[in-house]
């Protein structure tokens, strides 16, 4: 049952809800009783007349004391803080349609534990709800810690496959040598140690959804097999000559730029376009800071329940620091931050002085770009630069992995690294040589050796 407060108790508002089901409507005729109830128990939604007396104070009170309550404002578009603005003079029918849509998306997000009052997170919910009603593959894109798996579960739970399994797998966490058998299974005797048949994750998820997290880390050989399953629903278990058929929806997720991966030759373009036709982008927390008070309030309640402690909250100075921080670990980092300070609090509110050490320690860590860079360039450019730095890190890791007697095909790996460095540098030989840690003369010699020519 969704709890909805209405102020003031105008006949118009009451008529809008006359045909609504699944809501508990509470109208208020005076400000004091509304504020008292908001503070003591809160509501899912507060609907207000934007021209009502004391409305600015009510909105400020709501944002401070009931941040999880969504705000719907009718008229007065200059009033800040609304989750949904309804123009004045709207008909009952149009208002009802707008409100039904808003409440449907909000219920949908809340059912998956996704909190926030930003337009950005509402848009995520709108897109996810539309895709939940289809059966197409979905690509969820966003930085680590933004809640990509929560969104994937939400899409599954609202889909026709909700009675089937939701099977998550972190592609990047499984060694390449084991990933194929994990996904597709194997037959007895397929390799040393295969003493019995094993059912793979695709088969386990048949009738449901397979969530492939960090899809950008999938090896090229398996990308081909994944594409075939997406197109035909068929695959061969490792060591088997008999095909199996499955009915699986794929939801993939990544925190990497797959277009850049594609340009680097590390992600198949046909697989990318197959996955990215339906795309959900979850913005980082630093771009939707209006969600932070909502999340903090929720995480405090969770932490109080877990620790058995009554937390007296964060002071205004502390909240200013929390809102001003860039949160490179996104929602996951914020949750851990709140849990830690609730656990450590000793009978007094947490002040800015208490938490400034955390931000001083973390302001230059967990972020790929220096603070001064990110603060002075557009977020889109920062994201591109961070992806380039990630690719440079990948190249360096590959170079460091060359070991005598190792299992890598060094000739092929070295050629790949040189080609990637050249593409990344726009075929600027000097920059490519710096990336690889070699001089230009050595680079030219290796390009000649491997017959590498500009695309």
Summarize the structure.
The chain is 49% helix and 11% strand. Helix 3 (55-65) links the parallel strand 3 (45-49) and strand 4. It is built from 20 helices and 12 strands.
User: What is the strand arrangement across the widest sheet?
Assistant: 2-1-3-4-5
Helix content: 40-55%
Task: Kindly name the structural category.
Answer: alpha/beta
- CATH superfamily placement of the largest domain: P-loop containing nucleotide triphosphate hydrolases
What is the total number of structural domains? 4
Overall CATH architecture of the largest domain: 3-Layer(aba) Sandwich
How many runs of DSSP E, i.e. beta strands? 12
Stated plainly, the CATH topology of the largest domain is called Rossmann fold
- Name the beta content range: 5-15%
- Termini distance? 60 Å
Q: What oligomeric state best describes the polypeptide chains here? A: single chain
The overall pLDDT average reads: 86
What can be said about the biggest beta sheet? 5 strands, parallel
Can you tell me the CATH class of the largest domain?
Alpha Beta
Report the principal-axis shape: globular
What is Rg?
26 Å
Residue runs with pLDDT of under 50 for 5 or more positions: 401-408
Number of helices: 20
């Amino acid at each position: 049952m969704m709890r909805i407060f209405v102020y003031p108790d105008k006949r118009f508002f009451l008529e809008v809800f006359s045909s609504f089901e699944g809501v508990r409507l509470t109208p208020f005729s005076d400000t004091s009783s509304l504020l008292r109830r908001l503070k003591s128990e809160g509501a899912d939604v507060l609907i207000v007349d934007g021209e009502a007396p004391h409305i600015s104070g009510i909105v400020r009170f709501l944002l401070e004391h009931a941040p999880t309550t969504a705000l719907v404002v009718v008229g007065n578009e200059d009033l800040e803080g609304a989750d949904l603005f309804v123009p004045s003079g709207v008909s009952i029918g149009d208002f009802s349609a707008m409100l039904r849509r808003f409440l449907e998306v909000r219920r949908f997000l809340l059912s998956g534990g996704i909190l926030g009052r930003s337009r950005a997170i509402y848009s995520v919910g709108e897109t996810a709800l539309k895709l939940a009603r289809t059966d197409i593959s979905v690509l969820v894109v966003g930085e680590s810690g933004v809640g990509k798996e929560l969104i994937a579960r939400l899409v599954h739970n609202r889909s026709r496959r909700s009675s089937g399994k939701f099977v998550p797998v972190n592609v990047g966490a499984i060694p390449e040598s084991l990933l194929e058998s994990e996904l597709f299974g194997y037959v007895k005797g397929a390799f040393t140690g295969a003493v019995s048949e094993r059912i793979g994750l695709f088969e386990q998820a048949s009738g449901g959804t397979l969530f492939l997290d960090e899809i950008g880390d999938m090896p090229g050989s398996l990308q081909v097999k994944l594409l075939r399953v997406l197109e035909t629903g068929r695959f061969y278990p490792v060591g088997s000559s008999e095909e199996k058929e499955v009915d699986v929806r794929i939801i993939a997720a990544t925190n990497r730029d797959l277009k850049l991966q594609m340009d680097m030759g590390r992600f198949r373009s046909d697989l990318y376009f197959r996955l990215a036709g339906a795309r959900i982008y979850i913005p980082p927390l630093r771009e939707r800071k209006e969600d932070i008070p909502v999340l903090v309030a929720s995480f405090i309640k969770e932490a109080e329940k877990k620790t058995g402690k009554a937390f007296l909250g964060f002071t205004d100075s502390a909240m200013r620091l929390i809102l001003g921080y860039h949160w490179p670990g996104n929602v996951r980092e914020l949750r851990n931050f709140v849990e830690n300070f609730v656990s450590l609090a000793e009978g007094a509110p947490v002040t800015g002085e208490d938490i400034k050490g955390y931000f001083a320690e973390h302001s230059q860590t967990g972020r790929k770009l220096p603070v001064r860079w990110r603060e002075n360039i557009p977020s889109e450019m920062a994201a591109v630069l961070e992806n380039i730095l990630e690719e440079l890190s990948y190249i360096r890791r590959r170079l460091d992995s060359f070991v005598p007697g190792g299992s890598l095909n060094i000739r092929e790996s070295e050629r790949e690294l040189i080609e990637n460095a050249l593409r990344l540098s726009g075929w600027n030989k000097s920059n490519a040589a710096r990336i690889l840690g070699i001089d230009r003369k050595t680079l030219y010699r290796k390009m000649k050796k491997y017959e590498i020519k500009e695309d």
